[in-house]
Amino acid sequence: ASDSVSVSQFPTLTRYVMAKTHDNELAILLMALQLACKATSRACNKAGIAMLFGLAGEVNSTGDDQKKLDVLSNEIFIDALTNCGACSILVSEENEEPIFVPQDKAGRFVVAFDPLDGSSNIDCNVSTGTIFAVYEKTSDKYGAATELVITFKGHGVHRFTLDPSLGEFVHIQAHIKMPEGGGKKIYSCNEGNSRNWDAAIKSIVAKWKDSDKPYAARYVGSMVSDVHRTILYGGIYLYPADAKSAQGKLRVLYEGFPMAFIMEQAGGSASCGLFKGKLQRLLDIVPTSIHEKCPVVIGCNRDVEAVLNEYKALG
Ligand code: AHG
Ligand code: MN
Ligand code: MN
Ligand code: MN
């Protein structure tokens, strides 16, 4: 009670959103997303005592075993977003079909989300995350992602952290940029898949390991954590296509696009490598179904360029 620090100037996410937009509907949507993130964080934090570890018993539309927390966090997001009045369509990793918000509650936005990324890490307390992308609906008919527009473009990458004692996301870093020159030499991929990789990926990873100052390998297995580290420390994250999965594993709408957008905004690069016969920027992909996958090669320009040059040399 004797604490005299003024909270009226705290750089919270709520205050940031209010300052950045005069669009009330967008602000309401971001408040709903913020609330869903807090509720998901609370559910993950008490997973042990609430018996929320383990499998839910179902398989989702892209073939993953659903964990109880995948299901619970998905329900939290659907509840928050369908009732906020700002969304008309939701696309979730955990739902085969898009969810159409009833007319009386529908708004202007479409949200694609991965409610819990890295769910294979839950039971051993390794970090997980949530990924979402907000698109403005430009047509009353549901179509492919080309008809959707990303909001907040050009405002850079901002870092907020949840202060549990305050229950607010506090702005801790503005306009985050990847480290100069590419930062630490780190490569991040599931090397257990390497026998199925194409020649270029095999070769560049071998080069990184064989150089005078070899790259360090770091792989959490939660894309959110691996990309977060890549932005803050440097290096590269890859989930390439391979002989078993021609499109890779990660899903375009709620894993590839949002992470690529953040990476480019932070001054890095986001590519699919050689995909469907050509080198492609990830954000140029035009998905034709909601759970479509694409190869992901994202990180500092130094390392992404090295991958692209390897493709140019080896095909
Ligand atoms: P999710 O838990 O949302 O299904 O995503 C899993 C993704 C991503 O988080 C991670 O980088 C990757 O799958 C890990 O895959 P592997 O276990 O094949 O390495
Ligand atoms: Mn999953
Ligand atoms: Mn995921
Ligand atoms: Mn997920």
Automatic annotation (TrEMBL):
Domain of life where this protein originates: Eukaryota
GO CC entries: cytosol
UniProt subcellular location: Cytoplasm
Domain Fructose-1-6-bisphosphatase class I N-terminal intervals: 12-139
Predominant place of localization: cytoplasm
Record-level GO BP terms: fructose 1,6-bisphosphate metabolic process; fructose 6-phosphate metabolic process; fructose metabolic process; gluconeogenesis; sucrose biosynthetic process
Keyword annotations from UniProtKB, A to Z: ANK repeat, Carbohydrate metabolism, Cytoplasm, Hydrolase, Magnesium, Metal-binding
Domain Fructose-1-6-bisphosphatase class 1 C-terminal: 184-308
Alphabetized GO MF terms: fructose 1,6-bisphosphate 1-phosphatase activity; metal ion binding
Family assignment from sequence similarity: Belongs to the FBPase class 1 family.
Protein name according to UniProt: Fructose-1,6-bisphosphatase, cytosolic
Organism: Symbiodinium microadriaticum (Dinoflagellate)
Lineage: Eukaryota, Sar, Alveolata, Dinophyceae, Suessiales
